[in-house]
Automatic annotation (TrEMBL):
<feature type="compositionally biased region" description="Basic residues">
    <location>
        <begin position="73"/>
        <end position="83"/>
    </location>
</feature>
<feature type="domain" description="Insertion element IS402-like">
    <location>
        <begin position="1"/>
        <end position="45"/>
    </location>
</feature>
<dbReference type="InterPro" id="IPR025161">
    <property type="entry name" value="IS402-like_dom"/>
</dbReference>
<dbReference type="Pfam" id="PF13340">
    <property type="entry name" value="DUF4096"/>
</dbReference>
<feature type="region of interest" description="Disordered">
    <location>
        <begin position="73"/>
        <end position="99"/>
    </location>
</feature>
<protein>
    <submittedName>
        <fullName>Transposase</fullName>
    </submittedName>
</protein>
<dbReference type="InterPro" id="IPR052909">
    <property type="entry name" value="Transposase_6_like"/>
</dbReference>
Amino acid sequence: MIDAIAYKFQTGTQCVHLPEKYGTWPGVYNRLRMWAVDGTWERVFTALVAQADADEDVSWAVSVDSTIVRAHQHAAGARKKGPRPASRTITPSAGPAAD
């Protein structure tokens, strides 16, 4: 089960596309989801980091990416021609009056 979950994250594949050697995909998906909800992964990660820190195997480096990707003005829904038309005033119809 752990190998199947690791394979899923290493390859970026969906659970549906896991190789048959890992068993049924619903079983893998349900176990992954269940362990995420009940905090199992958080406890495993915390224990692994604590152990690596105690062994001085961790170098704490933080990298922040400040890349900005801007969309073209047309991708943002900009109008194609001229300014937006003024809103029209809505007047009641001149139909027959109710008696």
